[in-house]
Design brief:
There is one protein chain. Helices cover 27% and strands 27% of the residues. The chain is built from six helices and eleven strands. The strands form three sheets. Strands 1, 2, 3, 4, 7 and 10 form a six-stranded mixed sheet that branches. The chain is globular and about 50 Å long.
């Protein structure tokens, strides 16, 4: 395992020649983390050809010539009770090779792309994740912004980051994520069969993820 802290990280746009490498590192990053196995590498694969994909926010992190991390974004939107629509962004997957995790690589990718998104006039980024990983980047609970997944349902793991220095729009908002995140499980399994075999197993992080997925803010 690499024990060096990667200080001189190069953040650059993903290139076509990086695709397989990014899918492999994404698979390693998420394998057995949330469920036995994972499908995030398949998400990375199909996202690039989806209409909601933001190619201008697709970045990799390099260290000593090796790709060690990646972040991808998709367009999503919010709709209020009047039918008004607000364009927003969602990021994920955010992937870092296991031997480089907890060294700030993911944070570098997040901060870099947040700054770019803000210059484009995007209202906000809405994601699903463990709050402990994202509040340091300015994300807050979705209920603070009246953003729900359905009427009066505010998941603990749905987080909002306003990008513009202006008052948050009035109204109650429903999050509508990109359809790219609705993966075909059979297709994901077939795609995974093209990679070297990894052992699927249960581990405590999966129970933590399941609890968080069921948690809502009252």
């Amino acid at each position: 395992m690499n024990t060096k802290t990667p200080m001189n990280i190069n953040i650059r746009p993903e290139r076509e020649g990086d695709y397989r490498c990014v899918e492999e590192l994404t698979r390693r990053a998420f394998w057995n983390l949330h469920v036995p196995g994972c499908d995030e590498h398949y998400l990375a694969h199909v996202m690039r050809s989806h209409p909601d994909f933001c190619s201008d926010l697709d970045y990799v992190a390099e260290y000593e010539g090796r790709i060690i991390g990646n972040i991808m974004y998709a367009r999503s939107h919010l709709i209020n009770e009047k039918g008004e629509k607000l364009e927003i962004l969602t990021f994920g997957p955010v992937s870092v090779l296991p031997e480089y995790q907890r060294m700030g690589v993911g944070s570098r990718l997040i901060r870099h792309t947040i700054n770019i998104a803000a210059t484009k006039g995007v209202l906000a980024i809405v994601i699903f994740g463990n709050p402990s990983n994202y509040v340091k980047h300015g994300f807050k609970g979705c209920k603070d912004f009246r953003v729900a997944v359905s009427e009066d349902r505010y998941p603990t793991r749905m987080l909002v980051l306003p990008l513009q220095n202006r008052q948050w729009p009035d109204g109650n908002w429903i999050y509508n994520g990109s359809e790219v995140y609705n993966l075909d499980k059979n297709a994901a399994e077939e795609f995974d069969s093209g990679f070297p075999p990894f052992v699927k197993k249960h581990q405590p992080s999966q129970e933590e993820f399941a609890i968080l997925c069921r948690s809502v803010v009252l």
